[in-house]
Write a structure and sequence with these properties.
62 residues, binds iron/sulfur cluster, iron ion binding, Divergent_4Fe-4S_mono-cluster, 3Fe4S_ferredoxin, Ferredoxin
Amino acid sequence: MIKADTNVCIGAGMCALTAPEVFDQSEDDGTVILLTDSPTAEQLAIVEEAVNLCPSGALSLG
Ligand code: SF4
């Protein structure tokens, strides 16, 4: 299960660039939008990469 804290997100967009099937960004302020909170097994590795790349620590996997 992915969690995204939009209060922490700084809209850097690394997540959407890294895993565009899972993360999008708000057109208003660039903050993260989760397209799914339950990644498939195939998506999990790229989601983990996106979580690690996020500069604000807004993303977590649990
Ligand atoms: S990488 Fe992190 S800070 Fe950047 S848009 Fe995604 S959640 Fe927000």
